[in-house]
Amino acid sequence: MLVKHEIKSQLAKLLATEDLIVEHKRVETAEFNVHTRVLILPLWERASNDVYDMLVGHEVGHALFTPDRDYWLEHKIPPQFVNIVEDARIEKLMKRKYMGIAKSFYRGYNELHDRDFFELDGEDLSNFNLADRANLHFKIGSFLPMVFSTAEKSIIRMIEECETFDDTLEVAEILYQHCKKEIEDKKPEMSDDEVAKMMLDECLHNAGMKEESPFDDKDTDDMTDEELLEELDKPQKDDPAQLDVPSFRQGGDLELKSVDALEDSLKDLSSMNGRDNVYVELPELDLKDIIIPNKLLHDELKENFIQQEKEWKENDYLSLPDIFDEVDEEYVKFKKNAQKEVSYLVKEFECKKSADAYARSTTARTGVLDTVKLHTYKFNEDLFKKVNVIPDGKNHGLVFILDWSGSMGPVMLDTIKQLYNLIWFCKKVQIPFEVYAFTNNYPAPEGGFHKNGYQKREGLVLVDETFSLMNMFTSKVNVKLLEEQMLHIFRLAYGFSSKKYCTYNVPIGFNLSGTPLNETIIALHQILPQFKKENNLQKVQCVILTDGEGQPVRFSKEIQRRWDALPYMGSAYFDENVIIRNRKTGCTYSCKGVGRWGDISDILLRDLRQSFSDMNFIGIRILASRDAGHFVRHYAGYDESYEKIMKTWRREKAFSIKNSGYHTYFGIASSILGNDDEFDVVEDATKAEIKRAFVKSLKSKKMNKKILGEFIELVA
Question: Can you tell me the distance from the alpha carbon of 320 to that of 312, in angstroms, rounded to the nearest whole number?
């Protein structure tokens, strides 16, 4: 039923035509805060769709048209009478504003009448006062005709004509006085004995009051007349005016059966069992407190590498190769081999782009006669020159997120190679790009990266204070500087590889860490629009590469312990009662069924896609063979699609999934990431060895093309 509740929340927002906050809580009646614009709706779990729509429309009517006024301070009218008139007014205005909602009110009240929500079975309506009959008339009058006297018809007409809340108060006063007079007229005249008995009771009551006097006579001797009057005006302990609801707000002798019956019946629709829903929101982060700038990052790396090289030479290791010779040679070799691959990708991109432009081209007549066709005027009406119109292609940009967690160590070098192919491709076709690596290992300033980024408050998702994003690469730097920076990161990745031996150390702060993937998705809400604006882009591709789920996130929650006088701001984990809310889009996302960390990431990604509908989000998941089945089953279940995907995996060691938080989620075997399988054989190699080397080389290149080709398809 939760999905239904959230759908009805959207309905309420659409009807309100504003950024209305709608929350479903385990409360008996609906509440609306005019100042915060929060509409709290009960969990009407036993309500039909028609009744639900009617109730939502009614409450939104109050949100739109009932002002936030303490009317009882000026008008001594019981609220039941005001509500009867106001309900009629706001429902009339809702039907006027939304013509289609009249059907929802009709069907909803019809169902309530059929289910006897007003408790009318066996009742004689002629015994009901005018307020009750007016309430029934405006709610279920279509199914239960009412009979009114001439004077009553006049008041009913006044209710129908109410347009403002002031009109409501004026008519409610008239309705209240009319009902009071009805009761007084029905009271029988008292006999002389009854009058005498009433006077005697009053005298006895006054005599007893002296014993219960709020102050002794001696106390009054020293009082002035003004002080005595002030003391007499003070309400006593048993004075009903002391109650939370003032006495004038009660109906007194005026019983409104239909109002009480409907309220009690609607309470039966609400569920009060179980835990209440908790609504949480994402914080808006300050990027200056999170992102490690590109220049600062590489200045630190460069300085560290220079220092390590200096110390190496000072230790008289002259008989050995230079500390970075081996890794730098491998980088140069890789770059040389990769250029063919990149050139192929560029050529394929240009072909796809041209084909797409041709497909989108249109032919239009110019209005200028084509003299070559004039001789065909007797049998041809197409005598005008034509022109092909090719719409301009969109400007694209790339934001790449790299997993810098500890588990990436064995595949980091191959991952970086794939990333470099993508960077060189973007550089050649002039696509702006930014590459970030998420980490919680970079030395944070005192107080954490984002100590000033946002304030912790109830219901706000927490972001780990150690979380940061390293801006590794950017298209803003020139080719020479980019080359130097790529060498820096290649050295880091080379140092993580268990297959390689290196004599240098990875600088402190650049070691692999945890997996703050969820924090990164939250930060993308600020990164992506800024990137798009700075580069004047129409389309942005966001690629996130990981080898696992993100670490869990929590949200701030005020906790009151019984031994503490004041509550403190604690935290709680996500569970099935938590609903993530985005005020900008108006969307909500239930966390029901969240059992894995990856489920939260999918929810956050869906929210990201909804926030930026003009952007593509691509996930690349690096998988070990033993993990592929479990990963696919999480998204595909046990149906035939699972077997289809796994068949592709066994054949190609790669697959794509469409039903995740990403637009496309690629699974790639860690064993095929590298593209350095060249067709190299020894001179005396056998035919079988030559064949195996050739097939291995072709397979590797085929997979690389497949991986990068998907991105090209999107960009082209």
Answer: 10
